Amino acid sequence: MEFLNPSKYAYFPLAEWIEKYAKDWFFAQRPVFKKISIPIENTLSSLDSLFNFIPLPLIVLMFAFAAYKTNGIKFAIFTFLSLIFIDLVDVWEETMTTMAMIVTAVLFCCVIGIPLGIAASRSDIFEMIMRPILDIMQTIPSFVYLIPVVMLFGVGLTPGVIAIIIFALAPVIRLTNLGLRQVTKGVKDAGKALGCGKIVVLYKIELPLALKSIMAGVNQTLMLALSMAVIAALIGAGGLGLNVYVGLGRLDIGQAFVGGLGIVLIAIIFDRITQKIIK
Amino acid sequence: MENIIQLRSVNKWFGEFHVLKDINFSVSEKEKVVICGPSGSGKSTLIRCINRLEEHQKGSIIVDGMTLDENTKNISAIRSEVGMVFQQFNLFPHLSILENCTLAQIWVKKKTKNESEKLAMDYLRKVQIDDQALKFPGQLSGGQQQRAAIARALCMEPKIMLFDEPTSALDPEMIKEVLDVMVDLAKGGMTMCVVTHEMGFAKEVADRVVFMDEGNIVEEKKTSDFFENPENERTKLFLSQIL
Q1: How many structural domains comprise chain A?
Q2: Is position A23 within any domain?
Q3: Would you list the DSSP string of A115-141?
Q4: Rounded CA gap, B78 and B70, in Å?
Q5: pTM of the model
Q6: Which residues of chain A lie closer than 8 angstroms to B63, CB-CB?
């Protein structure tokens, strides 16, 4: 039956075409994309040096305090011990780098995502266009877009953060859109009837009412960003992900485990604190 | 007397559905008009057209000398002169009663916080919920919420007040406290357009009653004539059911 297989008679050179034409185009665009990444690079390097500049005990106390304020004494003790433990297993610096990456990524996800979510809530057409793009961003295997990211932005921390942003952007857009669409028409009408313009209605009525939903989106974005930290190490991003990646390459279970544990611990801390802020 | 609201052959469609059919309607200054009719007759749509919460497709609407059209400046000018009270109160749930009353004063009229709070407290006192000023809408009873909504609209010092079935969502024992506030307002000389089924209120304060059915103004008369000699069969039927 093999004679029925189409590939016996013809070949469609999609892979070659992409390799030949798209690659050239990507390389040609590199200077433009390098410029785009400058704000990300600046934020990242200043956050990284900030986190590494603040003395370790101070950071531990700050997090423990935030944990106490939001979740009470038990979680504060957990946070305190976790961070001490991270330093005891000697991945403190990597953890700070990962934190700088995650915070930068989430920051830019908000800066990009919230306005896009607002736009999607205003226009059904824009929402219709955004939806498949967001689906693609979330479901496409991240290894696939790591290649174009490297071609456009090179390797290193910044391209790693860009890959994280692409992967983690969707929830904040979706939940901003959803939250704004759930604001009842009556409340918006009341604002309009009082003479409020579109901007006042948005900032003073709609966004405050959608805040819970938006913050839930930010929380999910944060979690996705953390889960992407390891994959970003493939293209030269440092931090805890690098430990995992290097450990994997050398079959060094210990190193990989320590890196993974660090990510899990800061994920738990970030998640609990932001969850409580939402409420 | 000059007409402060003037509608000339206004038509409106929701998709295929013809909601308002060639409506001619006017309200003069300080007049109180009650609009009644069966549900789905277009009465809410009619008053929502007056501050352009709904757009009409044909005809003209002139409010206080300004024509309602695409011109956004006119719309916000008209909206700040026309207060509206809704069936579902529509208070801002994330703000205290006081903040509900100051929001538009601060952001639309550009008043200072102190000025707007002072005026807000004056109106809240007038509707007798000044002691609830710092509570949130969810903590108040329906009647209190509706009175707060009336105070919120009054804080913009409107020339005209529109009421869209203000008592329909209330428990029976709370209807009176809201109607009392509205009667006071009417006696104070406010121009009012009220969509309501409260015929007692209509008899007490309305100068004129308008009866609508299926997008038409079927009958329009002075209040006493309306109740004593309704001419149209549909009006008679409606009155016999409601009184």
Answers
A1: 1
A2: no
A3: HHHHHHHH-HHHHHHHHHHHHHHHHS-
A4: 13
A5: 0.86
A6: none
